[in-house]
Amino acid sequence: MLNLKNINLSFGPFAISNINLKLSKGDYFVLLGPSGAGKSVILELIAGILTPQSGQVFLNEQDITKNKIQDRSIGLVFQDFAIFPHLNVEQNIAYPLKIKRWPKERIRSRVEELAKQMDIFHLLNRRTLLLSGGEKQRVALARTLALSPDLLLLDEPLASLDIQLKKELRSQLRKLHRQGQTIIHVTHDFEEALLLADKVAIFNQGEIIQQGLKEDVFAQPRSEFVAHFIGVKNYFEVTNMEENSVEVAGKLNLVCKNQTHSSQKPYALMIHSGDIQLRKSKTIAANIENTFLGTIIEIYPAFRGFELVIDIGLSLVVNISQKQFFQLDLCEGDYIECFIAPENIQRISQPIKQKD
Question: What pTM, to 2 d.p., does this model score?
Fold first, then answer.
C-alpha cells in the first residue's frame, strides 16, 4: 500500500535519516514520538509538500516521490485544522469536489453523506468561526475524505481537544478504520497510540527507533528511550548473568522465572510499576528472594493512587492505590520493604541499540 524506502532529508542541523516504513491497506499506523522529533515532516514527505533528498515513496506500488500533491490519492488533516473561515461547513466540505468540477447534485450528495458520517449534518449552514474545536476537526476530516483518498494522514488530530472531545473523535477515527480507511496518525501521546493503532513506529531525532505491531513494540521495547516513552519506568540493563539470577545496573541481583543460560540472553529487565509489593518495615523478611529494603525518596499523586520513588540501591518506581497508601501511612524518608515476584520480571531478549 505505502512503502517509504531509505528516505533522507536535512534542514541545517536537523535531518530525517534512513526512514523505511511499510503499510498494508487498512492499517492504522501511529508515528509516536516527542515534540520536535520530526514526525510531521514524514507526513509532509508522504503528502508531497516536501521532497526527499534521497529515497523513494511508493503508493499502491507506484513511485510517487516526485508527484505533485494533487496527483497523490492522499489526504492530510493539519493540527490547526486549516479550514476556510470565510466559508460555512457545507462549503468547506464541498471545496475539493468543486475544484475537481464534480456536478452540483453529486457534490451535494457527497457532502451530506460525509456530514452524516462525521455527525455534523446539523452544522452544514453554520459559519466555521462559530464551531468548537471538535466540530472544526470533524469538518477538516470530512473535507479531507471528500475525494476518498487511499491514505489519510493525521497530524496530532486530538492535541487541542478536551477529554470528552478526544473520546468522541477517537470513536470517529475507529469507525473510519473499521470501514477500511488506511491511516497514518502522528502523536506524542502514548494513550492515543494504545487506543487506536494496529502498528506503531517510535520516532526520535529524525530516526525510527523501533517499529512493528503495537503489541510487540509495547511489550518488548528495545531501548531505554522506548521503554520510558511508553510509560515503563523500571527498565534496567543486565550487567551479569549467573545460574539462577541476573545482575542489573551493576548493583542488584534478581531471580527471574525460568532463568536459563540459553544463547539468546536477556539484555534488559522490565518491571511494571504496579507489580511490586510493599510492606512498611525497617528490616527485610528472611529467605525471601527479590526482597529489598529501601527508602522512599519521593511521593507523587498518580492516576487512581500514588507513585513512589524508592531507593533500593537503584531507583525503583512503584504505583499503589490510595487505599494501600493510607493503610501503610507512608511518608518520604520512610523505610519500606519491596518484593518483586520472579514472574513479574520481564526479560527483554533483543539486543539494545543505545542512542547517544
Answer: 0.84
